[in-house]
C-alpha cells in the first residue's frame, strides 16, 4: 500500500516541522518511490516546506557524496549552511540584548560598533568573549571542537583580520572539508580533522546549534538511489560501502533521543526493497528498525519509519 505524496508531506509538516523538530525533537524517515520523478518531486516538495518554516536545508546526492562516510556527509551539509549570516544573527542578538546600538549600515565589526556606542575596542572585545564563554563555550552538549569553531567564527566576525586566509576562513575550510593549515588549526584549538570518529558528534552539534543562528533546525534530504542501484555518471557503491551507509542510517535512527532539531529523510527507488544485494534485506539491523510491529491492513501509516509513496504523473 502506497501513500499519496500530498498526504505524506502534509503529515510531516503538521507532526514534525511545525513544532516537534523546532522544539528540539528529531526523526529519521525512509521513503520508497516508484520512479525518478516521484523521488525528485517528494524531496523538492519537502524542501520547499522546510524552507518556508525557516529550517536549515541540506540536499545530499549519494551520486556525488560518499554518504557511507559520516565525515563526508557532514562536509556536504556544512557547505550548504550560510554560516556568515547565522553568525551575524547570533552576534546581533547578543548586542541588542546587552543594550548596544547597531549602526545604520548594519556593520557588526568592532570599529563600527565602538564609534556608534562610545566604547573602547578592548571593552567591546572583552564583553564579546564573555558572551561566547557563557553561551557557546559553556554548552557541553556540543562537541568541544565544534564549540571552539563557533567561538572563532563569532570573534572573527566582530574583529575581522586583514591577513589571508584569516582564522575565520580557516574554520570555514575545516568545516567544509577543504585543505587548511594544520598549524593554524591547532592555534585555534581545533586539534582534529573531522573524520569517522567525530563526524556524528559534529553533525549532532550542528543541528543543535542552528537555532542560535536564527534557524529552527536542520533538515537533511538524502537521495540514495545510487546506493541501491548503479546510476551512470555517479559514484559506485561496493557491497562494503553499502553496508557502511546502512550502518550510518542505523546510528542516526538509534540516536534520535539524543539528537536535537534534526530531521533526515532518505529517498530511494523500489530497489531499496526489491534488490536483495543492495537493499534493506542486505542489512538486517536497519531492516528491523523499519518494520512496523502493528499496522493497518487497509491503510499505510504516512508517519512510519519506511513509507511507500505513490507515483507522480509524468509529462
Task: Report what the structure shows.
The protein is α/β, with parallel strands linked by helices and 315 residues long. The protein has 14 helices and five strands. Helix 3 (70-78) runs parallel beside helix 10. The mean pLDDT is 93. The protein has helices at residues 5-17, 36-53, 70-78, 83-97, 110-117, 121-137, 144-158, 167-176, 182-187, 199-209, 225-228, 239-254, 271-274, 284-290; strands at residues 26-32, 56-61, 218-223, 262-268, 306-308.
Label this structure with key terms:
315 residues, alpha/beta, elongated
Q: Approximately how much beta-strand content do the residues carry?
A: 5-15%
How many H/I helical runs?
Answer: 14
Helix amount, in percent?
40-55%
Number of strands: 5
**Major beta sheet, strand line-up:** 2-3-4-1-5
The end-to-end distance, rounded to whole angstroms, is 24 Å
Q: In this structure, how is the largest beta sheet organized?
A: 5 strands, parallel
Rg estimate, integer Å:
22 Å
Average pLDDT, all residues: 93
Structural class: alpha/beta
Helix and strand element order: HEHEHHHHHHHHEHHEHHE
Please state the overall shape, judged from the principal axes of the Cα atoms: elongated
Uncertain runs: none
Give a short overview:
This protein has 315 residues and is of the alpha/beta class. 49% of the residues lie in helices and 9% in strands.
Task: Please give the structural blueprint.
Elements: H1 5-17, E1 26-32, H2 36-53, E2 56-61, H3 70-78, H4 83-97, H5 110-117, H6 121-137, H7 144-158, H8 167-176, H9 182-187, H10 199-209, E3 218-223, H11 225-228, H12 239-254, E4 262-268, H13 271-274, H14 284-290, E5 306-308
Parallel strand pairs: 1-4, 1-5, 2-3, 3-4
Helix pairs in contact: 1-2, 3-10, 4-7, 6-7, 7-8
Amino acid at each position: 500500500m502506497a501513500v499519496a505524496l500530498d498526504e505524506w508531506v502534509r503529515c510531516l509538516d503538521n507532526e514534525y516541522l511545525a513544532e516537534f523538530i523546532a522544539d528540539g525533537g528529531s526523526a529519521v524517515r525512509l521513503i520508497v518511490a516508484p520512479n525518478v520523478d516521484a523521488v525528485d518531486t517528494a524531496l523538492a516538495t519537502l524542501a520547499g516546506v522546510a524552507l518556508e518554516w525557516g529550517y536549515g536545508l541540506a540536499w545530499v546526492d549519494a551520486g556525488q557524496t560518499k554518504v557511507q562516510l559520516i565525515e563526508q556527509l557532514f562536509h556536504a551539509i556544512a557547505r550548504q549552511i550560510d554560516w556568515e549570516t547565522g553568525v551575524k544573527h547570533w552576534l546581533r542578538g547578543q548586542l541588542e540584548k546587552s543594550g548596544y546600538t547597531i549602526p545604520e549600515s548594519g556593520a557588526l565589526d568592532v570599529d563600527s560598533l565602538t564609534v556608534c556606542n562610545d566604547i573602547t575596542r578592548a571593552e567591546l572585545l572583552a564583553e564579546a568573549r564573555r558572551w561566547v564563554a557563557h553561551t557557546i563555550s559553556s554548552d557541553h552538549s556540543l562537541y568541544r571542537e565544534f564549540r571552539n569553531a563557533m567561538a572563532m567564527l563569532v570573534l572573527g566576525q566582530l574583529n575581522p583580520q586583514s591577513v589571508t586566509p584569516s582564522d575565520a576562513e580557516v574554520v570555514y575550510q575545516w568545516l567544509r572539508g577543504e585543505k587548511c593549515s594544520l598549524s593554524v588549526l591547532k592555534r585555534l584549538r581545533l586539534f582534529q580533522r573531522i573524520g569517522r570518529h567525530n563526524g556524528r558528534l559534529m553533525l549532532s552539534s550542528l543541528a543543535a546549534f542552528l537555532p542560535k543562528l536564527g534557524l529552527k533546525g536542520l533538515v537533511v534530504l538524502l537521495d540514495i538511489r545510487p546506493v541501491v542501484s548503479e546510476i551512470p555518471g555517479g559514484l559506485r557503491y561496493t557491497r562494503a560501502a553499502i553496508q557502511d551507509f546502512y550502518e550510518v542510517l542505523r546510528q542516526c535512527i538509534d540516536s534520535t533521543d539524543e539528537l536535537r532539531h534534526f530531521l533526515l529523510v532518505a529517498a530511494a527507488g523500489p530497489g531499496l526493497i526489491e534488490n536483495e544485494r543492495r537493499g534493506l534485506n542486505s542489512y538486517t539491523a536497519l531492516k528491523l528498525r523499519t518494520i512496523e510491529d502493528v499496522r493497518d491492513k487497509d491503510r499505510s501509516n504516512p508517519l512510519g519509519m519506511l513509507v511507500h509513496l505513490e507515483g507522480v504523473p509524468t509529462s
